[in-house]
Amino acid sequence: MHNSAALPLPEQLVLQAQWLAPARSRMLRENGIGRRQCVLDLGAAYGAVTAELVRRAGGRVVALDRELTTLTNPQGTFADALRTGGEARALPFATASFDLVLSQCTLLWVAPLESAIQEVTRVLQPGGAFLALEPDYDGLMESPPSIETRTLWLEALSRAGANPTVGRRLPGLLAAQGLQMRVALFDSLVPPAVERFGFLRGLPLTSKERERLSQVEQQAQALDKPWAQVAHLPFFLITAVKP
Ligand SMILES: C[S@@+](CC[C@H](N)C(=O)[O-])C[C@H]1O[C@@H](n2cnc3c(N)ncnc32)[C@H](O)[C@@H]1O
């Protein structure tokens, strides 16, 4: 199912991109972003990551999304990247067009995942790298129990057509394409921000779930002492290189 109503707001994606920035920056550096000549931002949305790719890449950057409205949004941050509408499962590019492809929270929304992975592998040049930063909501850690939202996320994301456990599925699927893999997990924990509930509220929730979310938000706001609450969403940080 393709549910554009589940699209996060530009400012929510900026916050998420800031949170993931240290890990993404390290992955880009380790994969020689400065010498990459043709870079694809797969599922770029409003370009929360695109401008960074433009700034750091050695050559041109293409921002692709199936939602054209994101690519033309006035809040977009694309610098001089080429913007193109397109579907991850049938990429509108020739074989071996890119030497780096990045996906941040895009494969979460793609089904079947296998088609997108085959397409990414096809458009990568030999020696090209696919960098994926994708979450796994079933591993969401929260404390105390009064602020738990894991089940809400799992239900709402599935209802919206996403695959909430995309993180844990990716390594095996990418390795099956013959890619050389390195897999890490995002490792730093910051005190959780109330903004995390904004995206959940934008997903399709039943009225009962909405009520539960309001209760959780109240509980979370009441816990105003440092580290009185913990919420950590595991992110898989995958580098997959085409031999
Ligand atoms: C959660 S947003 C992430 C955007 C961006 N990568 C970022 O980190 O800010 C996911 C984006 O992927 C796009 N998307 C989802 N499925 C797609 C598909 N099959 N083909 C192309 N784009 C897709 C959505 O339209 C959305 O803009």
Q: Which descriptors apply to this entry?
A:
binds S-adenosylmethionine, Rossmann fold, 243 residues
- The total count of helices amounts to 8
Spatial arrangement of strands, main beta sheet? 3-2-1-4-5-9-7
Q: List low-confidence stretches.
A: none
Q: In CATH terms, what is the architecture? A: 3-Layer(aba) Sandwich
* Quaternary structure classification: single chain
Could you give a short account of the major beta sheet? 7 strands, mixed
Look up the CATH topology.
Rossmann fold
At the first level of CATH, what is the class? Answer: Alpha Beta
The sequence of SSEs as H and E is: HEHEHEEHEEHHEHHEE
Give the proportion of residues in helices.
25-40%
Strand content: 15-25%
Helices and strands: which structural class?
alpha/beta
Average of pLDDT: 96
Integer tally of domains: 1
Got a strand count?
A: 9
Beginning-to-end CA distance, first to last residue: 33 Å
Model description:
- With 243 residues, the chain is an alpha/beta fold.
- The protein has one domain (4-137, 163-191, 232-241): Vaccinia Virus protein VP39 (Rossmann fold, 3-Layer(aba) Sandwich), CATH 3.40.50.150.
- The chain has eight helices and nine strands.
- It is globular.
- Residues 7-8, 13, 17, 43-45, 48-49, 65-67, 70, 87-89, 104-106, 109-110 line the site of S-adenosylmethionine.
Summarize the model shown.
The chain is built from eight helices and nine strands.
Topology:
Elements: H1 10-30, E1 38-42, H2 50-56, E2 60-65, H3 68-71, E3 82-85, E4 98-104, H4 113-123, E5 124-135, E6 141-143, H5 150-159, H6 166-176, E7 180-185, H7 196-201, H8 207-222, E8 230-232, E9 235-241
The structure holds S-adenosylmethionine.
S-adenosylmethionine binds next to helix 1.
